[in-house]
Amino acid sequence: MSALVTPADAVAAVRRKLDQKWAEAVRADLDVRIRRLLLGQK
Fold first, then answer.
1. b/e 11-32 (16+ beta carbons within 10 angstroms → b)
2. 30: number of CA atoms within 13 Å, CB side?
3. What's the pLDDT band for 4 if we cut at 50, 70, 90?
4. Residue 42 has pLDDT above 70, yes or no
5. Domain spans of the chain?
6. What residues have CB less than 8 Å from 5, skipping those under 6 apart?
7. How far apart are CA 22 and CA 18, in angstroms?
8. Which tens digits make up the pLDDT trace of 5-29?
9. Claim: this prediction has a pTM higher than 0.70
10. For 6, left (φ over 0), alpha (ψ -120 to 50), or beta?
11. Is the CB of residue 19 less than 8 Å from the CB of residue 26?
12. What gap in Å lies between CA 40 and CA 37, rounded to an integer?
């Protein structure tokens, strides 16, 4: 059963999800860059 949410709650939930996905993408990019630095690649 789904609960009713206000438009503000829905927007906040979408923003949290976007922030999470953005943070995951940044971390993945940094992981790749760090590996390249450690391995001496460009």
1. eeeeeeeeeeeeeeeeeeeeee
2. 6
3. confident
4. no
5. 1-42
6. 13
7. 6
8. 899 999 999 999 999 999 999 999 9
9. no
10. beta
11. no
12. 5
End-to-end CA distance of the chain: 51
Q: Which two tokens stand for residue 15?
A: 């923003």
Q: For the residues of 1-42, what is the DSSP string, one character each?
A: -PPP--HHHHHHHHHHHHHHHHHHHHHHHHHHHHHHHHHT--
How many residues does the structure list for the chain?
A: 42
Q: Contact at 8 Å (CB) between 13 and 5?
A: yes
Q: Which two tokens stand for residue 6?
A: 């206000």
